[in-house]
């Protein structure tokens, strides 16, 4: 949902987003050993496919952001992975602008990085399954919440007249947050039982 | 939750169209220039001109009108939330007062400008960049100076999206065979969570096999590109189209 189209945001906000994203992508790429590229690519392809699945929610349907899960399994590589995913979405589906790419990458990847870092701080190999799903729910839901707040903030900073819209955008993310928390909790619980090394060390 | 191939969107429909014959690099550069110009432009007349230019590009690229409109409709979802409120939040000359909320002319004009900009860029990007193979987009970005590792990540991701989509369809079929229907509730969310957890485990094991196979072939982070079609110098068509487009963009900016 962090698909802000072109033409909405003000130039200082666009510049700030671009600077943060370039720095984040450079940081992510520097730590990305070339032989790990296939692993990161496979995982980000899974996340890309998953983000296209629509869940029924009342009258409408929502799709997941999955940045919490991405942060956990990808680590710092989440910045370049998100950039790739957003470029593909902009080009293939027209979701999200070209000039707004920096802001959109920042809004998705910064919460992902934080959620992944916090998860790894609190999770140990051998933690119980309940603890893993609780942490997964917090990472998944928290990352969506933070993304919603950042989208709202980037809108609000672009002009006073967008403040009302920013609140509305943040509110529409609340159901996504609930679904995403349940989804991430299940996915993490599964990974902690089947392949705990995936959680211990990001790809 | 059923879809047809994700990347089918990027199959070049008509290789013989004018846009299809341009060098991928020309198309990427033009799309970026177009987006920058449109974002900077402010008055409604030049934005309308930009939208018309984008539609002409779409016609030149022979985009399918139905598919393009469907994509734009998805974009309008976000726009509606942001734009519907603008006439009421921008102060200015009052036009109408539906239900006691004052709608201003300035707000309406700003909403129109944003809608024009967003649609113009989306149509132009789909026409110029969306109509080419995503793989050639990756190669073009690489030649334009994007970091090599980022391009590797891009190309590998594209490759595996298709593989994993098929794997996803298989797992979904297995769920459907067990009478799973997506609904609104924790059961569905958890089941789909398990589905993608499993997909990640399987795909990581696949990645380990890929990694082993690539090491066997001496992969050390360099990726010799066999299909180096774009390495030749841009032709007459690229210079001509580029010059004409720059002139048009200047017109928009003026």
Describe what you observe in this structure:
The complex is a heterodimer of chains A (203) and B (254). With 203 residues, chain A is mainly α. Chain A has 8 helices and 2 strands; from the N terminus they run ααββαααααα. In chain A, strands 1-2 form a two-stranded antiparallel sheet. The longest helix of chain A has 32 residues, at 163-194. In chain A, 65% of the residues are buried. By secondary structure, chain B is an all-alpha fold. Chain B is flat, with a radius of gyration of 23 Å. Chains A and B meet through helix 1, helix 2, strand 1, helix 4 and helix 7 of A and helix 2, helix 4, helix 5, helix 7 and helix 8 of B.
* Overall pLDDT level of chain A: 87
User: Radius of gyration of chain A, Cα only, in angstroms?
Assistant: 16 Å
Percentage of β-strand residues of chain B: under 5%
Relative helix content of chain B: 55-70%
Helix-strand pattern of chain B: HHHHEEHHHHH
Strands of the widest sheet of chain B, in order across it, are: 1-2
Number of strands of chain B: 2
**For the CA atoms, what is the radius of gyration of chain B?**
23 Å
Written as H for each helix and E for each strand, in order along the chain, the element string of chain A is HHEEHHHHHH
Q: How many discrete structural domains of chain B?
A: 2
Distance between the termini of chain B: 47 Å
- Main sheet summary of chain A: 2 strands, antiparallel
Largest pleated sheet of chain B: 2 strands, antiparallel
State the largest interface.
A-B, 78 and 89 residues
Q: Helix content range of the residues of chain A, please?
A: over 70%
Overall number of strands of chain A: 2
Mean pLDDT of chain B: 80
Would you spell out the secondary-structure blueprint of this structure?
The complex is a heterodimer of chains A (203) and B (254).
Chain A: H1 11-30, H2 37-50, E1 54-57, E2 60-63, H3 67-74, H4 78-93, H5 101-122, H6 129-158, H7 163-194, H8 196-200
Helix pairs in contact in A: 1-4, 1-5, 2-3, 2-4, 3-5, 3-6, 4-5, 5-6, 6-7
Chain B: H1 18-21, H2 24-40, H3 44-60, H4 65-89, E1 94-96, E2 103-104, H5 105-128, H6 134-143, H7 148-177, H8 186-216, H9 236-253
Antiparallel strand pairs in B: 1-2
Helix pairs in contact in B: 2-5, 2-9, 3-5, 3-9, 4-5, 6-7, 7-8
């Amino acid at each position: 949902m962090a698909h802000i189209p072109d033409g909405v945001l003000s130039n200082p906000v666009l510049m700030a987003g671009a600077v943060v994203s370039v720095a984040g992508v450079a940081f992510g790429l520097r730590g990305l050993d070339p032989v790990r590229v296939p692993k990161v690519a496979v995982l980000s392809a899974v996340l890309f496919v998953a983000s296209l699945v629509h869940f029924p929610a009342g009258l409408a349907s929502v799709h997941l952001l999955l940045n919490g899960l991405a942060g956990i399994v990808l680590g710092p590589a989440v910045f370049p992975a998100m950039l790739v995913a957003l470029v593909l979405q902009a080009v293939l589906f027209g979701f999200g602008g070209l000039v707004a790419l920096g802001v959109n990458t920042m809004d998705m990847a910064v919460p992902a990085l934080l959620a992944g870092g916090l998860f790894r701080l609190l999770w140990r190999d051998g933690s119980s399954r309940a603890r893993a799903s609780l942490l997964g729910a917090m990472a998944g839901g928290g990352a969506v919440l933070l993304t919603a707040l950042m989208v709202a903030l980037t809108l609000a900073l672009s002009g006073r007249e967008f403040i009302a819209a920013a609140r509305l955008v943040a509110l529409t993310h609340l159901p996504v947050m609930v679904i995403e928390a349940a989804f991430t909790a299940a996915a993490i619980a599964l990974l902690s039982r089947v392949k705990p090394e995936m959680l211990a060390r990001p790809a | 939750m059923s879809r047809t191939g994700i990347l089918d969107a990027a199959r070049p429909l008509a290789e013989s169209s004018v846009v299809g014959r341009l060098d991928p690099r020309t198309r990427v550069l033009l799309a970026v220039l177009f987006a920058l110009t449109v974002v900077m432009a402010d008055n409604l007349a030049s934005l309308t001109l930009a939208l018309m230019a984008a539609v002409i590009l779409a016609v030149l690229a022979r985009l399918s009108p139905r598919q393009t409109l469907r994509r734009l409709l998805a974009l309008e979802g976000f726009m509606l939330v942001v734009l519907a409120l603008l006439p009421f939040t921008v102060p200015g000359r009052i036009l109408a007062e539906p239900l006691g909320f004052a709608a201003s002319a300035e707000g309406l004009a700003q909403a129109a400008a944003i809608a024009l900009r967003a649609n113009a860029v989306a149509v132009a990007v789909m026409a110029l960049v969306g109509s080419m193979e995503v793989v050639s987009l990756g190669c073009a970005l690489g030649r334009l100076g994007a970091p090599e590792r980022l391009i590797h990540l891009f190309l590998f991701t594209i490759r595996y999206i298709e593989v994993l989509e098929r794997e996803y369809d298989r797992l979904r079929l297995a769920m459907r065979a067990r009478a799973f229907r997506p609904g609104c509730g924790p059961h569905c969310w958890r089941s789909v969570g398990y589905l993608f957890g499993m997909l990640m485990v399987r795909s990581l094991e696949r990645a380990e096999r890929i990694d082993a196979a690539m090491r066997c072939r001496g992969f050390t982070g360099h990726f010799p590109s066999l299909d180096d079609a774009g390495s030749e110098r841009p032709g007459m068509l690229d210079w001509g189209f580029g010059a004409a487009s720059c002139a048009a963009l200047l017109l928009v900016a003026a």
